[in-house]
Amino acid sequence: MTDKAKEIEAVFVYGTLRAGEHNDSRLEGAEFVGYGVLIGEYKMVDLGSFPAVVEDEGAEWVISGEVYRVTPATLYGALDRLESVDILDPEDRDDEARGLYYRRELDIQIGDETVKAWVYLMRPRRVWGDAEEIVSGDWLKRMPDYRTASNE
User: Fold this and answer.
1) 70, 114, 141, 144: which one has the fewest Cβ atoms less than 10 Å from its Cβ?
2) Residue 56 lies in a domain
3) Would 38 be classed as within a structural domain?
4) 149 lies in a domain?
């Protein structure tokens, strides 16, 4: 592994960090790798102004998103702060741990290729109220679209 490879991390984003969404500026300077999907025991829920992906044992979902190459400073700094990750243990999956989200390195499919990328997953107990599932697995295809409704 080259020194340059050690300085780059891949992250899979599926919500407000996607291009055109209200937090996409946090990825300014990041290299777009491609559109990808996370396939497995996960589901996406709508929490109003942002989505969450949570582990869902027995489910078989396809979550759509984008993969970017980012610096460790962006991943461990700006993105971990945005996602309210427990800075002491960002990969702790324990539902009782601090933080809204935890981070896991998972397989993401981009066309015929599989890449490893960090994915932010919400702790199930942090999903509030009667959050509706986004059955398409694509935040950009949810209904109703709050961006359109707020511009009318």
Assistant:
1) 144
2) yes
3) yes
4) no
Winning range, highest mean pLDDT, from 20-24, 66-70, 102-106: 66-70
**Number of domains observed in the structure of the chain:** 1
What's the distance, Cα to Cα, between the start and end of the chain in Å? 51
CB 67 within 8 A of CB 34: yes
- Report pTM: 0.83
Range of the domain at 55: 3-143
Residue 31 and residue 25: Cα distance in Å, rounded? 13
CATH number, residue 39: 3.10.490.10
**Averaged pLDDT of the chain:** 84
Per-residue H/E/C for the chain: CCHHHHCCEEEEECCCCCCCCCCHHHHCCCEEEEEEEEEECEEEEECCCCEEEEECCCCCEEEEEEEEEECHHHHHHHHHHHCCECCCCCCCCCCCCCCCEEEEEEEEEECCEEEEEEEEEECHHHCCCCCEECCCCCHHHCCCCHHHHHCC
